[in-house]
Each structure stands twice: as C-alpha cells, then as structure tokens.
Amino acid sequence: MSASTTEKHVFQAEIQQLLDLVVHSLYTDKDIFLRELISNASDSMEKVRHLEGTEKNFKDAGDDLQITLEMDKEAKTVTLTDRGVGMTHDELVENLGTIAHSGTKAFLEQMKEGGGSPAGLIGQFGVGFYSAFMVADKVEVFSRSWKEGAQNLRWESDGKTGYEIEEVDELPRGAKIVLHLNEASEDFAEEFKVKSLIERYSNFVGFPIMLDGKRVNEVEALWLKNKSAVSEEEYKAFYQFACKGFDEPAYRLHFAADAPIAINSLIFAPSENPEKIGFGKVDGGVALYCKKVLIDAEPKGLLPEWLRFVKGVVDSADLPLNISRETMQDSALVQKLNAVISKRIIKMFEKEANSDPEKYRKFYAAFERFFKEGIATDFANKDALAKLLRFESSMTDAGEVCSLTDYAGRTKDGQDKIYYLVGQNRDQIESGPYVEAFKARGLEVIYFMDAVDEYVVDSLGEFDGKKLVSIRHAGAELEDLDSDGDALSEEDVTVLCEFLQTELGDGVTKVSSGKRLVNSPVIALVPEDGMSPQVRQMMKAMDENFKDVVKVELEINPRHPLVKKLSEVRESQPDVAKLVAAQLLDNALISAGLLDDARETITRMNSLMEKAMS
Ligand code: ADP
Asked: What pLDDT score was predicted for residue 468?
C-alpha cells in the first residue's frame, strides 16, 4: 500500500446496527465518550508497561507515557493522543471495524433476543470506541503500532457505512484520535467542560492526563497502593478531598482480594453522623471504579442500604467498564462485591470495637441506628451485625455498655435464653416489677432503651443459639428460689386466684401465683405474640381511634404482705377486697405501660383512701 492509496471498507452489518443504536439511544449520556477513550488510551499504555517487562525486542517505552488532550474551538475538534501500543493495519480493521471482540458480540446477541432497552444493554456491554460517534460526525485515528516495521496509518469514518485507511507520514508510537465534533456537541471543544469531565470520571487514571500543558488528574488512586505505602496524612487527605468527608474519619478499611472477585477497596467510616445533624437520609458514599476509571459515583446495590454512611472507593477489575445504572443492582458481580465488602466492613467494626472499646462506644452512640437498620433489613448480615450492638444491662453500671457476646459469655449453666426488657430509661426499667426476679436469680437482663429496639430484637430472634426473650412475656420460665419462704399456702393461693379471676373478669386471661416477684405484689405478663407498649403507643399516636383490648396474665406474689392481707380480708371485708383486686390489676398495667385511661383508677383510689381513713 503506497501513501497515495486509500482503502475503503464497509462496516459489518452488525457494526452499522450498533453504531446506529449508540448514536441514537445514548445521546443523554454522551459525556461518557471521553471516559471511554481515556480508558482505551490508558489500557494501551498499560500494555506498553507490560511489554517492557516481557518482550525482549520492545524498544524504549519513552518517558512520556501520558494522555494529551487538545481542543480547537475553531476547527471544532478534540484530539486525544496516547503513547500506547498503537494498532497495525489488521488491528485497525479488526478492532474498529468488525465485531471480533466479545462484548459487542454478546451485546448484539442480546439485542436479537430482544432483551431490555437499548440504552440499558449498551451500558451493560460497553460502547467503547464507538461512543466517539455520539459527539463527532467524523473520527480520525492516527496510529503506529509498537511492532517492528509497522505502518503509519490514518483511519477515518463518519460512523455510518464504512471507513477508510491510508498510509501517512511518520507518526510516533501510539494512537491519536481526532474527533470532529457534531453541531450538538461543539461545547466539548471548551477546556473547562473537558476538564470537569476528567475530574469526574478519570481523576484517578494511572497516567498523567495533560491539558494545555498541565496535568489534570492529580489525585493518586490510593486504594491500589499497598497499605504500608500510604501515610495517615494521605489517608485523611483522600477522605476529605476525594470522598468529600467533612470530618475526621473514625475508621478505615483498606483491602485487596482476588477471590471470589477482584477487589481493591478503601472505605472510611466518618466520625459524625450526618443524618443526626439533620441532613436527612444521606446517599451512598462509596463510588465504584474499574481499574481507576469511575463507573458510578453512587452505584445502586453496591452496598446494603444501611451502610450508606460509609465513604470511599471500590475498584474491581472484573467489572465491565460500562455496566449501566439500570442493570447495576441485578448484576451478579455487583451482588458478589456487596456480599464480600459488607462482611469485611462488619468484621472491621468488630475488630476495632475489641481493640478500643471506648472509641467504639462513642462511635456507636452516633451510628447505632444504622446497625439496627441492618439487623432489621439485611438478612445475610444480621447475625454478624448483632455482635456490634451495645447496651446496658442489669449487670452493667448505669452508662456502661456491653455486647451480646459479653452476655453470652456469662450466662448461667444451662441458660438457653437471653433476657431483655425494652423501656424508656434505666430508672423506669429498674423501678418496674419485671427485673427483680431475674436479678434475684443472678440472671442478666438486657435493657433496651432505644425506640427502635423492639423491632430490632424481633428481627434478630436469637443470638449464638440462644433465644431472645422479653421478660415482660409470660413465657419466661424461672427456677424456684431457695428463699421462697413464708408464703400463702397452696390452698389459699388457689382460692385467691379464683377470686381475682372472677373479680377481674375479661381484664385478665389467667391469674396464677408465680416466682418472678420479690418486692412487688403483682405483675402483668403479656402474651408472646401481644403488642408491646412501644408499638401500642405508636399505633395510638397514628390513629386516635385506636383501641385494643389488652389481655394480660396476672401473676401474684404469694409472699407479698399486700397479697397475704388480701387473702385474709377477702371474706371479712368484701367491698375493700373488690376495690383492692381491681386496683392491683391497674397498678400492674401501669407498670407494664398498658393503662390507657386512668379515670376509673382515680375514682377507685379515692374510695380506697376514704375507706382506709374511716
Ligand atoms: P474495548 O475497549 O471494550 O475492547 P473498544 O471499542 O473501546 O472496546 O476498543 C476496541 C479495541 O480497539 C480495544 O480492545 C483495543 O484493542 C483497540 N483500541 C482502542 N483504542 C485504542 C488505543 N488508543 N490504542 C490502541 N488500541 C486501541
């Protein structure tokens, strides 16, 4: 082929179809052409680096392994030059004129099967080089391959029917792509526009991107470096600059993995909870990259929703560069990333909590709601997340916290349940009648004091094979205590229970004598499937007509003086006994947070006081 001959080629029919689709259905996303071309240039220079090490005949790579961008407003062109491996004549034909490469083939097969929207599909398979035709009505590629004796070539196409190749004067190794911008895309000849695109999509590309003699991409892709090669200052600067963190990072996770999927990841947990300071629900802060090129700044499905507070970067060389936003969540690769990374993050928190409990306590105070949301919504991670919970209990001092692992480690022999009580605060929980029996038996009770805890415990169900049981519920069986002396006789108890059952009628499902109580005369136990006081309160707040008839089981304390006295006066002073019976139930309901209307209670109290004084 001499310099004067021009070879004309017709695109394969499939390429024509593809070009038509790319140009006409992706026009809203045409920004991405630059990312695609930079990514090709970067790949090509990576190949140069590789050849340097493997190919004996490879000549000097040169010290200008960089991408240069030039804009010409008058000529309406954008020119992108790289010093990569370049392309031979056959490679130009094969790479830019046929559908030899697998991505395009798979794409067209899917298209033929009629699966999905063109835009979604193009995104899934990558449009690569052809995206240039979204902004240009003519594209020239000047190229000389690294291979010995390679020709200096110019490829040109209007992206419609075909392309031409001709030989040209001496070129440097690599590729130069000239885009002749179409009318609707002339603004890409503006420097600020191109600069902002580079900063957005290609900031971390491993080769300098030069614009007007200046390097545009200054930030290093820290996540690809070895941990030992990154200083604390660099991490912090990266968090604040690249991840737009406005505080100090509290924790970080920097890791690389090859299996089951290639991951390089750098993730930070902030120290301030933005949702607490009133920013509302935040968007996910972990961006997805493929070999330093941004795929999506806010990828859907990359992490579970509850992890929206962490910030950073996940880079996977296994991802197709152009996976689209629509298909992201369904992608098996993204789901794998999600599983691996969320597990790692939870493990990181667990480790950090063990090594510095005080620091974790502070962090937890700000971020606990996220972990709890995770337990309720992220089935795969809920057991691991349970280990991150912190709470006070009957065995901690006020304000001190422990974990479920701590609890499980000090259960009594044979104890197969974890006992808890949900309440507003420690005082309210401890002054009620529920905890005393457990304390007396040396059984630890967790105090859950956050409004959402009820749901969290429900979702969790068990920990370490031990069922979580509310001590408000009737099912929490207790052993006898040695100190069970001086109680009413069994006979008296039976008669008294029958009396109370008759007096209280529909208000109680059952009256029995029990072992729970130490200092209180009676206690109301709700059925395990019953509504908790917290849930009832919410229902009432939402619906003023809300009424539910609370049916409780009343347990009496046969050792309590009040109960013994009631047994005594049951026959001799029936009027008083009736009032006391009703009042005992109300008192138990008040302690349980279940009394809605106190008017009757007050009237009754007044009669009782009158009688006491007469
Ligand atoms: P992909 O990059 O997904 O393979 P493209 O359509 O972007 O698809 O590119 C097709 C092929 O053309 C690439 O695989 C590469 O071999 C070749 N190519 C594209 N750009 C360049 C370049 N700047 N230098 C050398 N080869 C290139």
From this structure: 94
